[in-house]
From TrEMBL:
This is NAD(P)-binding domain-containing protein. It holds the Pfam family NAD_binding_10. The lineage of its organism: Bacteria, Pseudomonadati, Bacteroidota, Flavobacteriia, Flavobacteriales. Residues 8-155 form the NAD(P)-binding domain. InterPro entries: NAD(P)-bd_dom, NAD(P)-bd_dom_sf.
Length: 218
């Protein structure tokens, strides 16, 4: 039986992952790191309010006896000033990984990254550069690490789109989908792939959109 840890369960993908984990009979415990209580109640779920996601030392005990951990915290490009975007994308993720390594070195760590993540750190795009930096630092830890690089994530559940680009992308999703499984993935499929790999492992560290789709039948 498994105990998992999630950071970012209030987001689109993290929320889908949490829902799947709650329904999974192989998972007996779920710890969710949150900024504020969600109000969700379930026998398997424990929420831990974290004031500073760049330093988890005050909550070191919740990183113990974890089988799989999922870092799903993220922000949309242009949503935050560059310094904040880098802190959220790189510093929060790396601090999460380091604390997990100390508390549960046997755990699998799954990162919600993104298509185009650049480990060379040469990209002119902040998103690609910072995701690559996070991947590099997490890969260097003594953990079984997996990075998920989805393309456009289609939100299965209704939501208020964060900006005009996402409104347009949602409307064009049937067309985007026609280009094949390299470019887009439904949020539920991405969450299922992350949970599957977190519980069972995988043969490669980086999973591009096509690899994610293959895990869930497209």
């Amino acid at each position: 039986m498994k105990h998992i840890l999630i950071a970012g369960a209030s987001g689109m993908v993290g929320g889908e992952l949490l829902a799947l984990a709650l329904a999974d009979t192989h998972i007996t415990g779920i710890t969710s790191l949150v900024r504020r209580p969600s109000g969700q109640a379930h026998a398997k779920l424990t929420e831990v309010v974290v004031a500073d996601f760049s330093d988890y030392t005050a909550h070191s005990e919740v990183f113990q006896n974890i089988d799989a951990a999922f870092f799903c915290i993220g922000a949309y490009t242009g949503q935050l000033p560059d310094a904040q975007f880098k802190a959220l994308t790189v510093d929060y993720a790396v601090a999460f990984g380091k604390q997990l390594q100390m508390g549960s070195p046997q755990a699998r760590l799954c990162l919600l990254s993104g298509a185009g993540a650049d480990r060379s750190k040469k990209s002119r795009t902040a998103f690609a550069r910072y995701k690559g930096m996070a991947e590099n630092q997490l890969s260097a830890l003594d953990l079984e690490f997996y990075s998920f690089r989805p393309g456009y994530i289609y939100p299965v559940r209704p939501r208020n789109e964060p900006n005009l680009m996402y409104k347009i992308s949602r409307g064009l999703y049937p067309l985007i989908k026609m280009f094949g499984i390299k470019y887009s993935i439904p949020s539920t499929h991405l969450a299922q792939a992350m949970l599957t790999v977190g519980l069972n492992g995988h043969g490669q560290e980086i999973l591009e959109n096509i690899d994610i789709a293959d895990l869930t039948g497209g």
